[in-house]
């Protein structure tokens, strides 16, 4: 004999189905409001609602003719619809024994007609209802029309749930739902209302990658699932969104201040770190951002939150507030990347300037350093200190070095045709040294222009050489074997060591200007530079001092045995024509 079904179990499963849809307490939605407006027009009644039956209340996802968002469930006709799953018609609430003492009847409502909102799995979420202030009879056409409207409302509910609105791992509303809800806030709050949002990141991108490599995606899924209850508890009933692999977003309660909300988040961070089993493998960070309802696009808000949560990785507290100033710097960075990519593809904006290197013993200039300059059509001259570091950290490094090399080799050809024999030095980044065809491209360029390999020197920083020392050394050895000269740039600021100098097949060591400029005033700096020069000579390297700006420093370097000097004392970086005039004068 089959035992009778427990009504309490049925209600629990119904409530669970309702809560999984993440509809309760969400912002108004135009998609649902169209249906309720249609209902009032179709029936000629002042009140209509999409009413969801929660454990102790009727909450209105959409409503017309009603100011409040919810009413008690007790003796509510919509609750009866949810419990029975059947259409309910009450021609006159005051004549009905069940509802004559209900809150609706007390508010003046006399007529009720409600059709059930039933999921595909058979759970009744509530009702699509219309209400009137006068008694009214119900026809079969009325019943059919309301059932059609209920089907439309239910289709909208399931459509939102099915079409990318719920994350399958966490069961939380995802980024698409967040975008929709933030946009819909403008329907519930006055435009410009200040709001707060927070993004919680369970791990940095590197930590996620390491976890994936070691433990696989199932482990990451478990971390996410385990975090959901804690997120919900902290949100205090507010909505939590799963917007990235291990990133969640929540909106602050309406009465929160930045101080209170950030303080609560910091307290939660401390508690969750102690309780989290993966605290030694992952780093939870929080980013906060202010936004104004209706004035900031949801995707821009997400970008701001992502920026803040990324910056929080370097914060001791693990929490950062979005900074418009930092954001402007990031925006500038990406603008520069895009603009430089464009400038590389068309002539006119990029050019080379050449700074001479002077033999300290003869005064002759036998070599110059090629320096990239950029004149933007709108911004004017852009500082190399701003765009060169960006180049070296992006995929533009290959294309930029290719452009500089080609321009330098063309200039060498022009100088040789004019009877000027100079060596040109070109700066090379760490990324270039890791390109498998870099050596071949350099040697092929020299051969194509008919230039001797010794007419080109490549300057490499210590940090670039030490990023992948084995690959760097192999590339340098192939270049040296081909006749290209190699210089270690900015010596003294990176990984200086005897073993390092001994292993790298360099011809020249360039002492960084930070040491050279302090020689005249500091005896210890003079001693340090003298030691660098002697050490480099003992290992077979020529020495160039950068940043020479006075005759006094030039004399000190000459006395210490330095071979060449470069700096404003001799000449600033010059265009080819200006350099030719400078050489003629010397």
Shape: elongated
The CATH superfamily of the largest domain turns out to be: EAL domain
Number of helices: 22
Query: Low-confidence stretches at least 5 residues in length (pLDDT < 50)?
Result: 1-5
Query: Per CATH, what is the topology of the largest domain?
Result: TIM Barrel
Oligomer: single chain
- Let me know the number of strands: 20
What strand line-up does the widest sheet have?
12-13-15-16-17-18-19-20
In the CATH scheme, the class of the largest domain would be: Alpha Beta
In CATH terms, what is the architecture of the largest domain?
Alpha-Beta Barrel
Task: Bin the helical content.
Answer: 40-55%
Mean pLDDT: 87
Descriptive keywords:
8-stranded mixed beta barrel, 20 strands, 3 domains, 586 residues, Alpha-Beta Plaits, TIM Barrel, 6-stranded antiparallel beta sheet, alpha/beta, disordered N terminus, Beta-Lactamase
Account of the 3D structure:
The chain has 586 residues and is an alpha/beta fold. The protein has three domains: 7-162, Beta-Lactamase; 175-322, Reverse transcriptase/Diguanylate cyclase domain (Alpha-Beta Plaits, 2-Layer Sandwich), CATH 3.30.70.270; 355-585, TIM Barrel (Alpha-Beta Barrel). Helix content is 46%, strand content 21%. The protein is built from 22 helices and 20 strands. It has an eight-stranded mixed β-barrel with strand order 12-13-15-16-17-18-19-20, surrounded by four helices. It has a six-stranded antiparallel beta sheet with strand order 3-2-1-6-5-4. It has a five-stranded mixed beta sheet with strand order 8-9-7-10-11, sandwiched between helices. Strand 1 (47-53) and strand 2 form a beta hairpin. Helix 2 (30-43) packs antiparallel against helix 5 (140-162) and helix 11 packs across helix 13. It is elongated.
